[in-house]
Design a protein that fits this description.
Blueprint (H helix, E strand, L loop, with lengths): L10 E2 L4 H11 L8 H26 L9 E2 L3 H16 L3 E11 L4 E3 L4 E16 L6 E6 L8 E6 L13 E4 L4 E7 L11 E5 L4 H9 L26 H14 L3 E14 L7 E10 L5 H10 L1 E3 L3 H11 L4 E2 L1 E2 L9 E4 L5 E3 L27 E3 L3 E2 L1 H5 L2 H6 L13 E7 L3 H16 L4 E7 L2 E2 L16 H19 L7 E2 L2 H24 L15 H22 L3 H29 L1 H4 L1 H22 L4 H11 L1 H4 L19 H23 L8 E7 L3 H8 L2 H8 L1 E7 L7 E3 L4 E6 L1
Amino acid sequence: MQGFNVLFPQGWDCHGLGIEIQVEKTYNIRKRDVPPEQFRKWCMELVERYIAMMKEGILKLGCSIDWTTEYRTMDPDYWRRTQLSFILLYKKGYMYQGTHPVNWCPHDETAIADAEVDYVKRDGVLHYIRFPFEDKSDYALIATSRPEFIPACVAIEVNPNDERYSKYVGKRIVVPIVNRSVTVIADECVDPAFGTGVVMICTYGDKEDVKTVIKHKLPVIMLLTENGRINENGGKYAGLTINQARAAIVEDLTAAGLLEKTEKITQEIGVCDRCKAHVEILERKQWFMNTRKLTDAVEKTANEIVWYPDYMKNRLIDWTKSLDWDWVISRQRLFATPIPVWYCKKCGELILAKENWVPIDPKLENPHIGKCPKCGGKDFTAEQDVFDTWMDSSITCAVHAGWPDRADWKHLFPADVHPSGTDIIRTWAYYLIVRHLALFDEKPFKSCLINGMVLGSDGRKMSKSLKNYAAAPEVLNKNGADATRQWAAGGGATGSDIPYRAQDVEYGRRFLVKLWNASSFTSKLLADYKPDANAKLDLQPLDKWIISKAENLTKKVTEEFEKCQFNVAMEDIRNFTWHVFCDYYLEAVKDRLYNPDLSGTTKKLAAQDTLYQVLYRILQLLAPVAPHLTEEIYQHMFKDYRGFESLQVSPWPKFNAAIVDEEAEKNGDMIIATMIAFRNFKAENKQALNAQYSCLTINTGSAEYAKILKASFEDIRGTLKVNELIITPQKKPDGRQISPYDMYFEAKQ
Ligand SMILES: [Zn+2]
Ligand SMILES: [Zn+2]
């Protein structure tokens, strides 16, 4: 409507871990139980079902998507783009392999990124355990919530400034259960106030252990298998699950007299954001993107981007600065884009796919070279790992612009707006920025619009088990698209979460019914009206009043939309439509239209023209939010005259300061207040609103007020249903007072 040629693309991000989990549940299997091809086929079928459902919703909502651009990240043509972006970044030195500790989901048996770890509060138990000194002189008391990690203890740590324990530093201490000796080391990061102030360092109980091991160059004893069991380093506990091992070790400590006491605590632990399993830290060879070297560039870019609302920028910057580790981009999964890499069986040389080999699945195809460039070997093994799903979705801004196929893709890049949600700032927004900076040295988008989440009616996260769940198709079928869109736009400030309440959508629906009824009533009043831009109009005070108000509304709503304050814009449009237009203006000019012989036909034409223009303005301002209903009304009432194929391509109204008439608005407000006061007067006297009065005297108490009311004499008389109307400047403080204008009514029936 503002004349821009807008591309609204649609892609489907398919490779989420959630899909694999859903397939495992549906078929009651684990992913390694069936051939990988079968498992991937089930994943694709499930994705297709979800896409069909979501697409139906999007189509019903009337989103103006260019469907010729539709893509799915699970299609080979999209693999091509993800794989190409990897090859380019590998060549630029951003991609590397390393054996570093990573977050690991033992349930899904894959590495996960920091962004996929959620933190939750859980009840735990703190175990106070005696660790005897090697020289048998004494013991140190250590409090830990994870005694199962004792077999992986590699050091004991105290704060050197802690007077109680500084004497321990350098001494050898015996790790119970496994009877190995470790050294007591000193580090100021130990909190003397937590537990006993003596800490065991295990590989790896948590992220702090990782930092300590690196800093003090401690050995690593990996204790867990990829599916979360104790491995051979756990001795007699090997094969047990983590929980079983904890129970067994606590039992053995108790039997040995080494468990002094236990204490209940509440602790914050990291869980997998998909399956909610306790996240462990494992070491395994992984692929990483060197994202941390871009931290400063990301911060600078975030400051260049316009954020709606502005404070969301800080969430991104805080997240960027909080990252301890590079982004682990490899996953031990099945349904994902393959990493286009092979290794020479003979010499281990890494062979990276060439740019024109992709899309390629290295597990199904050999590298397109006859022999290893290093040793001449002819046998290769494929990289077994696949990409994190965010490797697919972190190049979308370039892909939407046509990269890598269109020579002119930079024309549409960076994107003007990146619409997203609060829950994926640390993933989608962050990964988009790092990847586009690394690939193209350019920000992915100029502005970022962050929406809140829709919560259940009780304010909690929507979930089927909480029974606070509403399915989009039901809401759409019951209320229609426009009421639903209106609720989404008006439900709350941009960026804040909004609870889903059925009555809020119904309110939207009632508003649309009101608009529809008002339009059809207006249409009847306009039966003998022909719009004519050159007609000389005898505009009355109330006509000027609403025309000026509509112009100010246009200015406000336009600014609010520009600032993505959709809820404020909706509030303003609804108030104007419901009250100013329907309740006041339409009521106040009815009589002028019904009885033109009393008021004169030029005044009738002025009212008709005002109704026509103001209703059109309402439809235009509402068109972005309620496209279906406004279009229907436009086609019936306005298309023949306005001539645009659709309201959606009519030019957005431009604010015209010359139309604003503050005097007219002030005067009109007084006229309307007078009418409302007399309506209330009738109601208080138990009279119907259309009850006829033989005489009404309005004592204005001021010559100026009297003059203003007299200028709308016929509109007031007709609307109030009064045979004889007397407006006088006299002040007569009895009868009914009109606040805030200090006038008085005397009425006779
Ligand atoms: Zn998981
Ligand atoms: Zn080789």
